[in-house]
Every structure is written in C-alpha cells, then in structure tokens.
Amino acid sequence: MGESAQDSYQKRWGHLRKVLERQGPFGHPEFEPSPEILEFVMNGCKILVIGAGGLGCELLKDLALMGFKNIHVIDMDTIELSNLNRQFLFRRKDIGMSKAECAAAFINSRVHGCQVTPHYKRIQDFDESFYRQFHVIVCGLDSIVARRWINGMMISMLQYDDGVLDQSSLIPIVDGGTEGFKGNARVIMPGLTACIECTLDLYPPQITYPLCTIANTPRLPEHCIEYVKVVQWPKENPWGSNIDGDDPQHITWIYEKSAERALQFNITGLSYRLVQGVVKNIIPAVASTNAVIAAVCATEVFKLATSCCVPMNNYMVFNDVDGIYSYTYEAEKKSNCLACSQVPQTLEIKDPSKMKLKDLIQVLCESASFQMRNPGLTTYINGKNKTLYMSTIKSIEERTRDNLNKTLTDLGLSDNCEIMVADQTSPNTLILKLKYLIEDVNMD
Amino acid sequence: MIKLFSLKQQKKDGESSPRPGNQKKPSAAQLRITKDINELNLPKTCSTEFPDPDDLLTFKLIICPDEGFYRTGRFVFSFKVGPNYPHEPPKVKCETQVYHPNIDQQGNVCLNILREDWKPVLTINSIVYGLQYLFLEPNAEDPLNKEAAEVLTNNRRLFEQNVQKAMRGGQVGGLYFERCLK
Ligand SMILES: [Zn+2]
User: Fold this and answer.
1) Could you give the ipTM of this predicted complex?
2) A373: pLDDT confidence band, cut at 50, 70 and 90?
3) Given this model, what pLDDT does residue A183 score?
4) Mean pLDDT over all residues of chain A?
5) How many interface pairs between A and B have CB atoms less than 8 angstroms apart?
C-alpha cells in the first residue's frame, strides 16, 4: 500500500478501526480487538438483505458505507412511480425494472469496492444451500408470510448434536419493520432467542370489518370498498380472476362500484386512492422511519459480524408520531413455539424394508418417550406433502389405511427423512427424523 | 452471548456440502394445520370430506343439524387454509344455498371468528362449533340476508315454514333454493 493509499484507507476506515482495534468500556467482555476484524467485515463477511424497498434501500446504503463489501439482495418487485420519494436508489428511468437489480447497480457504481449481487426472485425460489452461505440475514420486508418463511428456513437449518445446538449452523436474523411513523427492529438468534413465530401475536391482524356491517349498515367508505371486494367481485367476477391490486382496470371497477354504494348510503370520502389503499392494504410509508429502523438494523449487523459489542436483546420499538419514543425489551422465546421449540428428534429404525407403518405407529404409542394416542403422520416426498396415516379423520383414514401394511421403504421414506407427527399428547406437531441402522439391504 | 464468527472458522463461501436428505421443510402453517386436523373433535352432526388426503389445506365440512329450524337439512362448507394460517383465518364458504339470516346467496357467512374476531389461538374446531351454532341459533341482529332476518324477528312460524320450503327446494322471497334435505 502506497503512502497516499494508506492515508485514504486510514481516512475512510479510521473510525471503524478505533472501534475494532481497541478495547473499550462499552465493548463486549470477550471482544478481542484485532485488525483482522475489519478485514473480515470487508472481505470475509457475507450479508443477505431481503427486500430492496423502503427499508432495503436504506439498509444497502448503510451496510455498503459501513464497509461490508459482499452483499446479496433479494426482491421480486419492480419499481413503481410511487416508490421514488423514499426508495432513493431508484430514478424515474428505472420504473418497471427490478428493484434488486437497480439497487445493486446503484450501490456498486456509487460505493467503491462494494459488490452487491442482486436476485430478482422470491425468497422461496432458493433453498438451504443458498441461504447457508451467509453470515447474517437482514430483512426489510412488509409481509408476514415472507418473514415466517425465512424464519422457518433459518430454524430448519439448525443442526443439533445429541440435542445440543451446533452454533456454527446458526445464522442470525436482523429484522426491521415500519408502518408509517412506527417501526421495530429485532435480532433473532434462531433456536436461542424469540423467533418470528414466538411473537406472531405482535403483528396486528389485517383490519377487517364484520361482514354484516359492510353488507347492511356501512358507515365508512372503507366498508363500501370491502363490500365490493368481498361480495360483489366474487359474484360478478368481471375478469374471471382474483383481484389484482396492480391492475388499474380492476381498481377502477372496484372504485366505480364502491362509489355507487357510497352514494346509496350517503357516505362521503371515497376516492380512487383510498380504493387502492384498501385493496392493496397500503400503509403510508415514511422515509424517516425507514432511515431510523434501517440504521438500527445495520448497527446490529455490524455488532454481530464483529462481536465488538453485545447485540440488542432483542426487540426495539420506535415511534415518532408525537415526539420520539423508543424502548427495547427482551421478547421471550415461547416454549411451545411452532417453529423454534422443535429440536428434531431422531428415531432409529432397524430395518426399513421390514418395518411397516403400523409398526412405526406402535412404537410411537408404546415407547416410553412418546406414549402417543392417535398420531397423525405426514411427510414430504419429492417436495409434496403426503399424508401417511391419520386415524382421526374418516375420509383420510379410509384412503391411507393401505399404508399401514406397507414398509417404510415401500412408502418411499429414505434414510434421514423427516416425518411430521401430530398427536394430542403434544402441543405441537413433532418432527421426527428416521435414522436407518441398516442402509444396505443387499447383504446376501 | 455467543461469539458467532471466531475468525478462525469464519469461512463459508457456499462450499459446504448440503446435508444428506435435503428434504422440503414443513411450514409453520403446515405443522399447525396438521395438528388442527388430527385433533378435530367433531360434534356428531358434523363430518369432513378431504378430496385429496395429501392436501390438509382444502376440505369440506358437512353439517346435518339434529335440532332447530334446520334439523332436516344437509349443509356443505368449503374450507381453504392459506399460507398465513393461523395468523389469518381460513376462507370458509357455504356451498349449499340456504335461507339463513347470516348466510348470503354467494355463500358468504357472517361469523365473527371468520373475520374480525379471529385469533391465532382459535382452531378449525372453533370454526366448526361456530358454524354449527349458526344453525341452532340464527342471529337476526347481524344479517347478511336481511329479509330472512326480518321474518325471523317478526314471525318465527313463517320463518320456520320458509326454511322448510327452501330446504325442500323452491322459491322463497324471490330467491331460488336448491333442495338440501339429507
Ligand atoms: Zn419461536
């Protein structure tokens, strides 16, 4: 490194080196300062940003300027005019193009040395082998389904040795969310701290109105729109399809029908924008809230990547509706969480070509560690759900009864495959991994 | 706290080989519905029909009330459970045309726990009991079929006759109903 290059390196990263190369009173107790850490941030650490919208743009900018050079971003959306006020990596010429691709191109040209890899895809298009390459995953999503999916993926990737979590299989999730002037940021250590599913109650359900109100005694313009959405659309089905909130024809149709209804009930305040808002369930986005939440998330990513400081424990709420309020607390892990309370149990099977499904069920009912009553068994075969046996539902029992006399091999259950077992004796569906002791059956 | 990446073992670079048996993982919704279905505890007036036993997300519920206005009828409801279950309730429609104050001609059902009062702690069983109750105690205060609600409030005998007529198949209040006697 030449004299001037070193100067500019020091100039650009001096502030980080102060944090990473010295001990400090606020540092993590086990933190070992070293120049290698900055090297890791810049060249070793791989971050995945999910979502390139309001939060995503902020996150990418923050992380890139912080020194992270190896960033991937996933987003399946394209840029719309209404994004441009806050999604500052996009310009008017980008409308209609992929958010992930435009955001990556912008950062790569603007931040020297940073390499953002875009994926114009859905998160569900990738599997474990893709997600495993990252050190930290940071989400700027507006969808609960997507959050639950990525949460489930990270939990399913955890590996246990004799029931003890192998920490090298753990990928932390930093999750940010905003709604108008409110936001939250949280750090999830899958398997160790509260996950998305543990705190599902925190997400407010979508606003819904009683059906009879919207049908008979509408008082708000929203009631009229809901009525058209829920009752009139399925009845008249003008385009023979589901409502597409991005299709202006659909919105216009709903707008006109709602306006008629509003007139009929003397309701004022109905507008095209409102129709769009209700149909697409749009919550107005505030740029400053995104900036605050993304900054908190990026800081947490930095703490996790460097271990220089104890990460947030574990949930921060932020509100600047009226003044500024913020509070951090420890969301608790739920002992019966659908997702993270599952430590996959292993069930050893002597010989899958001899063991029939009914024998397996007998084991589940009679062994001291399970003592089940009416276990229902399902699995995934070739990516599709398959019900192996369920005694409690007549129509299913009748059509899965034949499986009872089939061997595990006949049923297509391979070594290390997982089966889901639901039973009244356990608060959750259990995941059991079948471990075959005899793998090679051709022993003669 | 755990130190995630001690610099010695930080290497990742996607070179780690996938675990054996890289099987599709069940979603939380799938795990939960499996539990709900396995533990369905149906009243004797109700039964379920799964067109595809491998698909626990789509099924029908058949209610044959044994008392009340609707005791001789047979009513079919379709259930569709989405990927956001149990955060969101399943979509339930009545497939049988029924003369009922809380069910309209399109099969929409006015039952609070199907919409505004849904909570993730509720189960498919809760909905089954809710629907069954609608046939025992039709509720004139939350009408979807306003006319039926008015008749129920003002003239219970006429309401009973109308229900019978509709269940036998025929015209009531300008609407045609298909026969749905069991
Ligand atoms: Zn959890």
Assistant:
1) 0.85
2) confident
3) 95
4) 90
5) 195
User: B54 and A385: CB-CB below 8 Å?
Assistant: yes
DSSP class per residue in A274-339: HHHHHHHT---B-HHHHHHHHHHHHHHHHHHHH-SSPPP-SEEEEE-SSS-EEEEE-PPPPTT-TT
Residues with CB under 5 A from ligand 1 (ion): A 195, 197-198, 337, 339-340
Residues of chain B with pLDDT under 50: 1, 7-8, 11, 13-18, 20
In tens, the pLDDT along A36-79 reads 999 999 999 999 999 999 999 999 999 999 999 999 999 999 99
- Supply the pLDDT for residue A439: 59
Place of tokens 């971050």: A47
The Cα of B135 is separated from the nearest Cα of chain A by a number of Å equal to 17
Q: What confidence score (pLDDT) does residue B22 get?
A: 60
**A150 C-alpha to ligand 1 centroid (Å):** 12
β partners of residue A188: A173
Q: Out of A168, A374, A380, whose CB is closest to B24?
A: A380
Amino acid at A264: Q
How far, in Å, from the CA of A194 to the mean position of ligand 1?
5
pLDDT in tens, B49-86: 999 999 999 999 999 999 999 999 999 999 999 988 99
**Which pLDDT band, with edges at 50, 70 and 90, does A290 fall under?**
very high
* Residue ranges of A 302-321 with Cβ closer than 8 A to chain B: 304-305, 307, 310-311
CA distances from A109 to A61, A70, A86, A261 (A): 12, 14, 20, 52
- Based on the number of CB atoms within 10 Å of its own CB, is A32 exposed (0-12), middle (13-18) or buried (19 or more)? middle
A420–B26 CB contact, under 8 Å: yes
CB B166 within 8 A of CB B98: yes
pTM recorded for the entire structure: 0.80
Query: Chain B, 119-158: which have a CB under 8 Å from a chain A CB?
Result: 120, 142-144, 146
User: Helices A272-280 and A248-264 sit at what angle, rounded to 10 degrees?
Assistant: 110
Q: What is the DSSP string of A342-360?
A: --PEEEEES-TTT-BHHHH
Chain A residue closest in CA terms to B113: A210
pLDDT at B5: 61
Instruction: State how beta strands A418-422 and B58-63 pair.
Output: unpaired
Q: Could B115 and A234 be called an inter-chain contact, meaning their C-beta atoms sit closer than 8 Å?
A: no
Amino acid (one-letter) located at A268:
T
DSSP one-letter code for A21: S
Nearest Cβ partner for A395 among B5, B49, B104: B49
Q: How far is the CA of A197 from the centre of ligand 1 (A)?
A: 5
Q: Select the more confidently predicted residue: B78 or A165.
A: B78
- Give catalytic residue positions of A: 212
Chain B contact present for A127, CB below 8 A: yes
CA B84 to centroid of ligand 1, rounded, Å: 16
Contact B38, A376 (CB under 8 A): yes
Share of chain A above pLDDT 70, in %: 98
A416 closest CA partner among A146, A86, A159: A159
